[in-house]
Design goal:
The chain is of the alpha/beta class. The protein is built from nine helices and eight strands. 41% of the residues lie in helices and 17% in strands. The model has no long low-confidence stretch (mean pLDDT 95). The structure holds pyridoxal-5'-phosphate. The site of pyridoxal-5'-phosphate (PLP) has 14 residues, from strand 8 and helix 9.
Length: 230
């Protein structure tokens, strides 16, 4: 087994342990391996370790790597755009990705809708902690954005995404993850879109806490592929 495949197995064990602590089923959490800065052979090693969902954060990098990684993989892969997406990259993004996690304004949603040739799954990125340097829509503006998106052809809004504030202590991010879960439950009460189910939250530093708080998708890079070169 390669080191990458062994890391995938370890991450899965940690996800399963966190799920059990919260009386959740490990199978309800999808692992997205984030491959920014990782070359196609190492991506293929993760796929050999059982990964089916992969994430990139830049269209330019993804344009080169996704076709190369798909060619090496022996099975169909699902690609997730997890980084900030500019409107002028929407056309390329819909051709490359199956899921976009980072929709945070109606202009971007409209452009994705206009450009996609098939049903595209999207998540709305929320700035749960209200941090100035973080992207994402303010919680108070979320219902209006969701009401816009559900009317757009070609898009299916499947959940919410958040990036926790960067801190050394995973416990300080727990309130942010809890807030995203509460927002999803609020969306359900408002009856805006019954497809808003997924919570994309948790990265290498904090995924166990995210799973305890209800994450259904975790986005993990370094715990699988090692530290990225600066
Ligand atoms: C890089 C990245 C990740 C993965 O981060 P790690 O700390 O390497 O696990 C997750 N989500 C987004 C949006 C990212 O850009």
């Amino acid at each position: 087994m390669t080191d990458v495949a062994a890391n995938v197995a370890r991450v899965r064990e940690r996800i399963a342990a966190a799920a059990r602590r919260a009386a959740r089923r490990p199978d309800d959490v999808t692992l997205v391996a984030v491959t920014k800065g990782v070359d196609p052979p190492r991506i293929a090693a993760a796929v050999a370790g059982g990964v089916t969902d992969l994430g990139e954060n830049r269209v330019q990098e993804a344009e080169v790597k996704i076709p190369a990684a798909n060619a090496l993989a022996r099975r169909p892969l699902r690609w997730h755009m997890v980084g900030h997406l500019q409107r002028n990259k929407a056309k390329k993004a819909v051709a490359l990705f199956d899921v976009v996690h980072s929709v945070d304004n109606s202009a971007l949603a409209q452009e994705l809708s206009r450009r996609t040739a098939r049903m595209l799954d999207v998540l709305v990125q929320v700035n749960v902690a209200g941090a100035a340097q973080q992207r994402g829509i303010a919680p108070a503006a979320l219902p209006a954005l969701l009401r816009t998106i559900v009317r757009l052809p070609g898009l299916r809004v499947v959940g919410l995404m958040a990036i926790a504030p960067l801190t050394g202590d995973p416990e300080t991010v727990r309130p942010a993850f809890r807030r995203l879960r509460e927002l999803r439950d609020e969306v359900a009460r408002l009856d805006i879109a019954e497809t808003v189910i997924h919570l994309s939250m948790g990265m290498t530093a904090d995924f166990a806490v995210a799973v305890e708080e209800g994450a259904t998708i975790v986005r993990i890079g370094r715990a699988i592929f090692g530290e990225r070169p600066l």
